[in-house]
Amino acid sequence: MEKVENEEASWTICPECHGSGKKSRKLSKKIRLLYQIALDQFEKTKDEGTAPVRPKAHLYSCLNCSGSGLLPSAAPPIADTENYPHIAIIGGGIGGIALAVACLHRGIPFTIFERDNNFDARSQGYGLTLQQASKAIEGLGIFSLKEGVTSTRHIVHTTEGKVIGEWGIRKWVQPDTKTTSKRSNIHIARQSLRLALLEQLGGHDMVQWGHQLIDFKECKDEGIDLTFQVNGDIKSFKADMVVGADGIRSSVRKSLIGEDSTPLRYLGCIVILGICPLSALEGLTSSLLDSATVFQTANGNERIYMMPYTSDSVMWQLSFPMPEKEAKELSAQGPDALKEEACRRTQWHDPIPQILAATQAAQISGYPVYDRELLKVELLEKGGQVTLIGDAAHPMSPFKGQGANQALLDALTLARGISKGCRPLSQWRKAGLRENVLNEFESEMLERSAVKVKDSAEAAQFLHSEIVLHESDAPRGRCLKNKDT
Ligand SMILES: Cc1cc2nc3c(=O)[nH]c(=O)nc-3n(C[C@H](O)[C@H](O)[C@H](O)COP(=O)(O)OP(=O)(O)OC[C@H]3O[C@@H](n4cnc5c(N)ncnc54)[C@H](O)[C@@H]3O)c2cc1C
């Protein structure tokens, strides 16, 4: 990501690429001709063989907007209520706010509802690593993250501190070589990323806080009626499309497809998380605490992962197998019990015991890890004008750091799909939002995220097994299959 300040107050979509950030090259005359011949041939023989697939044009990054799909503007576009459907976004987490931002840039009318009473209603303290989504956030108008920290080194140790793996640009690139931050991961507190998105949206007032979705149903005439609980009262709202961005325990998903077909699936382990300021580690010097190193230490059962949280604090995530009942009980006992358990299990090399001991109980949380079986396109197809994004659609374990990345990609892809499928003269009211937007969006989203859900579930197993201890300068699990982690 370029280190450019987000000095532009507003954005609008690039007219050259219509906000997609990409343009397609024209198909060559020869390819068009070959396709036409194959098509004519197929039509002549009708039922025999399969129809030729229309060749796809090669895409390239739009030069006018440098691939973000956005251009600066004095003010956000005025919502086009004539042409576009009104979108009700349920959930003001990472995915929901990102979708609202992408709708704002495109003049798509929306209302975003969040059940929490305000931004800080619950402790939401943990850090995220932006991988592929560091490009997607440019498509959301965020060109630099003030609070983001870039890591350049990743190390794996045994519990005695022996290094069994190291990678990252510091390992592979000579120190005097000029490197770009584009190839590194960006670590950021979830609330800092959420705040950056909220700033893009125009501030806290753009969210309907304290609105918990209770139910929705399709109206007889047109659109969908939604019911919310607000301060003990019941309120109604009408929209053309509903997007469930309401997390792993999504009410929208429950109303749409029920709980029984894809219930929460326990992945056999618990995670305990903590945030520790470096100032609490007085007198301790360690090259692992340089605010640019991610490290993990494991013994084949417990595994701790430590990353920069801000430039002056670290986040740790300890995980280990545990039966579901015990994991729920431990989580319910609260921060002091979680801290005691974490410290007991990690009397390992420096600086791990010191960091855990110095972490205040108030900065510790823990929960059993769940995902759900992959959603099938057919289950969502029944949803008419209702769809899901982020954890509501494809919850996954945190071990690949992909949940928020996928939620951001979903949000941008859906807004781009609405913009394209509901453009003036598209007749979406006649054809339906499912036909014009949702079918294509859902099949792309489910295909893209399926591998991440699967890999994240596999990581919940192998990170707590002997496999994690193999010596190689590559992310763990790469020996199982040759792909990125
Ligand atoms: C410890 C940990 C570490 C992680 N690390 C990473 C990482 O490094 N990289 C990464 O990409 N991902 C990571 N993730 C995953 C990531 O946080 C989630 O995948 C991401 O937040 C999902 O975004 P979302 O918008 O779908 O849901 P959420 O962010 O969970 O937001 C859902 C929102 O919906 C609201 N809501 C729920 N029900 C209702 C209702 N009925 N009415 C109105 N509002 C409602 C909730 O209050 C909440 O605000 C991590 C997760 C954890 C727990």
Task: Describe the SSE topology.
Layout: E1 10-13, E2 22-24, H1 29-45, E3 59-61, E4 70-73, E5 87-90, H2 94-106, E6 110-113, E7 127-130, H3 133-136, E8 149-151, E9 153-157, E10 163-167, H4 169-172, E11 185-189, H5 190-201, E12 207-208, E13 212-218, E14 224-230, E15 233-239, E16 241-244, H6 251-257, E17 264-277, E18 293-298, E19 303-310, E20 313-321, H7 324-333, H8 335-345, H9 352-358, E21 364-372, H10 377-381, E22 386-388, H11 403-421, H12 428-431, H13 433-462
Parallel strand pairs: 5-6, 5-16, 6-12, 9-18, 16-22
Antiparallel strand pairs: 1-4, 2-3, 7-11, 8-11, 9-10, 13-14, 14-15, 17-20, 17-21, 18-19, 19-20
Keywords: FAD, Flavoprotein, Monooxygenase, Oxidoreductase
Pfam families: FAD_binding_3
Protein name: FAD-dependent monooxygenase
Notable characteristics:
single chain; 485 residues; alpha+beta; FAD/NAD(P)-binding domain; D-Amino Acid Oxidase, Chain A, domain 2; 3 domains; 22 strands; disordered N terminus; FAD; FAD binding; FAD-bd; flavoprotein; FAD-dependent monooxygenase
